[in-house]
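User: Can you recover a sequence for this backbone? Please restate the input before giving your answer.

Assistant: Of course. Working from this structure:
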C-alpha cells in the first residue's frame, strides 16, 4: 500500500476497525503503512527505539487477516498495530508516536506523571489505572506502590477498548460488555470540582483555564470552582518529599525482584547495575545524561521499614484522607480537574491511585 486511505495523524483505532470490517484495508496493509511512517519520521522524532522484524509482523498480520476472513474477531482491536513503551522512564515516546501517526495506539507506564504529562502535551487520551489491575510483568519498576501501565490513544473509545485488553478482570470489576458500554458521551451526570490554575503551576494561563471551566460548568451536573486540594508541598515529611523517600527506599528490592524474574539478565543486583554503568560510561552515561545519581542514592540508602512505613502513612494521609477522598466527599464530587503538569500528579501517585485513577482527557466542545 503506497498511500494510506486514511490520515495517520487523525484516524483513531475505532475508525481503523471500521475500515477493517468493511474490507477497505487489511491488517497487513496497516502494518506496512505504520512501518513506513516510522521509517519516514522517526529519525527526527526519536519516538521508537525498535520494531519487531518486518517479516514477523507481516506473518502475524496475515494470520490475523485470515482469522477475520473466517469470522473470528478477537476484540475491537483485532489486527491493529500498537507500540509498547520500552521499560523505564517517561512515556513521551509512546505519546509522540500516537500523536505523530506512527501508531494508532500505544502503551506507556507511570510512576508519577509519565503518562499524564506526555499525554497532555500530545493532546491524547490517557489514564493511569488503579495500581494492581494491570500486570506489571516485564516492566522495569520504580516503586511497587506507584507504578502502573496505561493506554495512550486518540479518542476515549479507543482508550476503553485498550483497557478491556490490559486490565485483569480478576483484580477489578470490568463491565460485562466492556468499558465502552459505560461511556455516556456526556458530562450531564458528572459532579465536577476544579483547581485554581494560578495555584497549580499555570498562573499565566488562567484566562484559558477559565474559558475551559466555563464550558465544563455548562455541561456538568454540578460544578465547584477552586476546591482546596492539598498541594504536592504537603507531601513533605521530616524535611524530605515522602514520595521520593519511598521510591529511593523501594527501588533496590523492587529492581532485584524484577531481574530475578527474567530468563537472562546481564546484571542481577543494583550494585551490578551501577558498576556496569560506570564501566560502560561512554554509552550508559553520555554527556547529555552524565550521572546515575538516583541509582547511587538508592544503593546508598539505609532506610528502615519503620521509616518507610511512616513516609507511606504520611503520603496516604495527605493524598487520601486529607486530600482526594476529603474533597470528593466534602463537595460531593465525582472528579477533580486541574492542570496536568502540576503537583496534581504527585497527589494521584501518593494515593496509589487506589480508587483514584488519574487521566488526561480532551473535549470536542
Amino acid at each position: 500500500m503506497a498511500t494510506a486511505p486514511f490520515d495517520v495523524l487523525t484516524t483513531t483505532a475505532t475508525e481503523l476497525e471500521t475500515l477493517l470490517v468493511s474490507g477497505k484495508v487489511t491488517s497487513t496493509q496497516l502494518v506496512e503503512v505504520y512501518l513506513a511512517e516510522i521509517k519516514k519520521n522517526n529519525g527526527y522524532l526519536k519516538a521508537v527505539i525498535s520494531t519487531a522484524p518486518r517479516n514477523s509482523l507481516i506473518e502475524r498480520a496475515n494470520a490475523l487477516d485470515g482469522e477475520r476472513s473466517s469470522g473470528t474477531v478477537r476484540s475491537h482491536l483485532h489486527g491493529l498495530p500498537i507500540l509498547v513503551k520500552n521499560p523505564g522512564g517517561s512515556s513521551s515516546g509512546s505519546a509522540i508516536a500516537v500523536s505523530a501517526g506512527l501508531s494508532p495506539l500505544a502503551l506507556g507506564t507511570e510512576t508519577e506523571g509519565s503518562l499524564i504529562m506526555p499525554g497532555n502535551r500530545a493532546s491524547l487520551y490517557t489514564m493511569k489505572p488503579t495500581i494492581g489491575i494491570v500486570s506489571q510483568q516485564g516492566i522495569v519498576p520504580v516503586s511497587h506502590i506507584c507504578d502502573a501501565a496505561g493506554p495512550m490513544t486518540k479518542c476515549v473509545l479507543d482508550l476503553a477498548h485498550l483497557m478491556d485488553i490490559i486490565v485483569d478482570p480478576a483484580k477489578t470489576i470490568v463491565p460485562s460488555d466492556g468499558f465502552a458500554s459505560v461511556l455516556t458521551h456526556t458530562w450531564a451526570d458528572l459532579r465536577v470540582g476544579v483547581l485554581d490554575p494560578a495555584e497549580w503551576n499555570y498562573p499565566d494561563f488562567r484566562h484559558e483555564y477559565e474559558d475551559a471551566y466555563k464550558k465544563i460548568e455548562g455541561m456538568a451536573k454540578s460544578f465547584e470552582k477552586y476546591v482546596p486540594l492539598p498541594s504536592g508541598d504537603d507531601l513533605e515529611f521530616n524535611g524530605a518529599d515522602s514520595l521520593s523517600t519511598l521510591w529511593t527506599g523501594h527501588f533496590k528490592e523492587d529492581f532485584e525482584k524484577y531481574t530475578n524474574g527474567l530468563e537472562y539478565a546481564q546484571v542481577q543486583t543494583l550494585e551490578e547495575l551501577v558498576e556496569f554503568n560506570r564501566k560502560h560510561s561512554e554509552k550508559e552515561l553520555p554527556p547529555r545524561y552524565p550521572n546515575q545519581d538516583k541509582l547511587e542514592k538508592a544503593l546508598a540508602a539505609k532506610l528502615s521499614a519503620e521509616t518507610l512505613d511512616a513516609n507511606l502513612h504520611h503520603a496516604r494521609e495527605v493524598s487520601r484522607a486529607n486530600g482526594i477522598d476529603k474533597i470528593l466527599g466534602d463537595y460531593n464530587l465525582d472528579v477533580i480537574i486541574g492542570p496536568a503538569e502540576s503537583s496534581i500528579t504527585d497527589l494521584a501517585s501518593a494515593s496509589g491511585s487506589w480508587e483514584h485513577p488519574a487521566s488526561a482527557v480532551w473535549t470536542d466542545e
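That completes the design. The chain has 13 helices and ten strands.
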